[in-house]
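About this split. The held-out portion is used to measure sequence recovery: a designer receives only the structure tokens and must propose an amino acid at every position. Recovery is the fraction of positions where the proposal matches the reference. Here is one held-out target exactly as it appears in the evaluation file.
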């Protein structure tokens, strides 16, 4: 690492250092939980749980940040690989647990054309490709960046399964995380996008979007895993234990997440 990169990393670590304040849990949370997690924290706190300081982002980015020394105590990933890689590298206390199984959905603003059916959830992408080829305009198709976002990987797999990955290249716009991808999907120039089902169900989006689920078999399972980092404090441990309980699962179900026992081998 050269001097410039070392200086940039040092400045970044100083900037996020307040995450590790005593008396509160410092948590890195996948963007697919951006609307569900505040409710989880509210319920946890109502039962006497300690304060929680949350950062939302792409799981792959959090994996790199933690490996570089970011002072998070608990990591809720949108996939398994990010947590397991940190465990293999010695950053977590254990391999953690699967706390939920996510789903992928197509979302679009009402009036952007026919909503795809359950059996052909990517027909809107096909229509956007046809419109572009006919020279009638470019309707964007949004997804999270597959380089570091698990829901972006799932979106790419679904498009590849449908034979649309290459043809959709001129139309694709990628969010840094799945929450940003959802905003791109509802922009004026977009036909729609492939995002977490949990975001499609969020009250703040439900009023301005319609959605259809992508069949679970169209992409690799979205087994969402969490783990405590080495040296995690009591506050983070209390939250970790509470998130494994039934009260947390009830909230997660309301946002479209399947329970952990839906994951094979858990």
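Reference sequence for scoring:
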């Amino acid at each position: 690492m050269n001097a410039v990169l070392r200086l940039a990393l040092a400045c970044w670590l100083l900037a996020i250092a307040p995450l590790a304040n005593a008396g509160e849990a410092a948590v890195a949370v996948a963007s697919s939980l951006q609307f569900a997690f505040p409710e989880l924290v509210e319920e946890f706190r109502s039962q006497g749980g300690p304060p929680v300081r949350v950062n939302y982002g792409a799981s792959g980015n959090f994996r790199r940040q933690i490996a570089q020394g970011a002072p998070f105590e608990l990591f809720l990933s949108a996939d398994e690989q990010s947590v397991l890689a940190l465990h293999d590298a010695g950053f977590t206390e254990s391999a953690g647990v699967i706390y939920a199984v996510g789903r992928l959905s197509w979302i679009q603003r009402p009036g952007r054309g026919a909503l795809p059916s359950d059996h052909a959830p990517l027909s809107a992408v096909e229509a956007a490709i046809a419109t572009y080829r006919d020279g009638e305009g470019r309707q964007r198709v949004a997804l999270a960046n597959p380089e570091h976002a698990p829901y972006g990987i799932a979106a790419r797999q679904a498009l590849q399964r449908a034979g649309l990955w290459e043809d959709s290249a001129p139309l694709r716009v990628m969010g840094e995380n799945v929450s940003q991808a959802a905003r791109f999907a509802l922009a004026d120039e977009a036909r729609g996008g492939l995002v977490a089902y949990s975001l499609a169900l969020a009250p703040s989006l439900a009023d301005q979007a319609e959605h259809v689920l992508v069949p679970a078999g169209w992409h690799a399972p979205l087994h969402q895993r969490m783990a405590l980092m080495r040296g995690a404090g009591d506050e983070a441990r209390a939250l970790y234990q509470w998130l494994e309980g039934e009260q947390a699962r009830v909230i997660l179900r309301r946002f479209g997440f399947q329970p952990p026992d839906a994951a094979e081998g858990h």
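Annotator remark: Residues 1-20 have pLDDT under 50 and may be disordered.
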